[in-house]
Specification:
66% of the residues lie in helices and 0% in strands. With 179 residues, it is mainly α. Helix 1 crosses helix 2 and helix 7 packs across helix 8.
């Protein structure tokens, strides 16, 4: 003879209504005498109850959450059994994200990582200073070059500036990707 619904609920540490719902849904089977064999029922309960639906209203998992879990596992080169959302897959994705976060935090502490916004700002600043230095070059050297070549200094400066601007415009078209 097995346990009553109320006794089995105490055994499982759940409300009696949860046991009634599990019986109604077919997740656990009653014995012929209407009682519950706790050993069999525990196995059935674990096998038939979706961990994602425990203590929740049974709402479906949003597609964005499923995609995030799949992407995380794919990026980590890890797969979990089953194609649909499961507690195992979600837990594995969570553990992968924790490990990735810890690795990044450690790399940052070691000085192996730099802030992307700061790096972009520094590169932009460096490029601007380089451009300004080149733009100031023709006025500084035009007179000396004109004297060596025996040409008009003002004309020499204008020609240098024209060619320099064209060259800088070509360089400005180069796109830099920072990862």
């Amino acid at each position: 003879m097995g346990l009553s619904r109320r006794a089995y609920a105490r055994h499982r540490g759940v409300a009696e209504s949860a046991v009634r719902k599990a019986i109604a849904a077919g997740r656990i089977k009653l014995e012929k005498d209407g009682t519950i064999d706790p050993v069999k029922a525990d196995l059935q309960w674990e096998a038939q109850t979706d961990p994602m639906k425990r203590h929740v209203s049974g709402k479906p998992v949003p597609r964005a959450a499923i995609k995030a879990v799949d992407d995380t596992l794919r990026e980590a080169g890890t797969t979990a059994p089953g194609g649909e959302m499961s507690f195992l897959r979600a837990r594995m994705a969570n553990e992968v994200l924790k490990a990735q976060t810890a690795r990044l935090r450690l790399q940052k502490m070691k000085g192996e990582l730099v802030d992307r916004a700061k790096a972009t700002s520094l590169v932009f600043d460096l490029a601007r200073r380089e451009r300004d230095a080149w733009m100031n070059w023709p006025p500084r050297v035009a007179a000396d070059m004109a004297a060596e070549l025996g040409v008009d200094a003002h004309l020499m400066e204008q020609v240098l500036e024209h060619h320099l601007r064209r060259h800088l415009a070509e360089l400005a078209e180069i796109e830099i990707e920072l990862g």
